[in-house]
Amino acid sequence: MSDNLTEFTGLKVMVIDDSKTIRRSAESLLQKAGCEVITADNGFEALPMISGQHPDILFIDIMMPRLDGYQTCALVKNNPKYRDIPIIMLSSKDGLFDRAKGKVVGAEQYLTKPFTRDDLLGAIRTHLLNKNKDG
Question: Over 70: is that where the pLDDT of 79 sits?
Fold first, then answer.
């Protein structure tokens, strides 16, 4: 029995995006599903937060100032303490090159903006809930 309100309770989700609108919309959708949400407006700001809060999953925008999504993803994946955190890249571009580059830096999935509630929750379900059932 998985009623949608409790399915995601206790999950710590981080959204890194330089757009306040995107951060707010993702935060609102995820909180309604029971997630604890942490937000940052760029990778540079996010790294110490990841280290302090250790989120269960990361949604990272690709186009950001200072440290872009690919660099942020690579830094997280290159750190043995955090490499198991699933990373979902967010982009307004839906190009093959971007998807391929996301895979190269270790991202688990690629979502195109604007995303829906189902996109976000589906990604969490795929990378966190299924993983927990297997292990």
Answer: yes
Chain segment 107-127, per-residue pLDDT in tens:
999 999 999 999 999 999 999
Phi, psi for residue 89 in degrees, rounded to 5: -80, 140
Alpha carbons 4 and 132: distance in angstroms, whole number? 17
**Residue 80 preceded by cis peptide, ω within 30:** no
- Work out the burial of residue 107: count CB atoms within 10 Å of its CB; fewer than 13 is exposed, 13-18 middle, 19 or more buried: buried
pLDDT of residue 24: 97
CA dihedral over 133, 87, 18, 54, signed as positive or negative: positive
Query: Quick one: average pLDDT of 88-111?
Result: 92
The sheet that has 36-40: what strands, in order across it? 36-40, 12-16, 57-61, 87-91, 109-112
- Tell me what pLDDT residue 1 has: 37
DSSP state of 114: S
DSSP state of 115: P
Rounded Cα gap, residues 24 and 113, in angstroms: 14
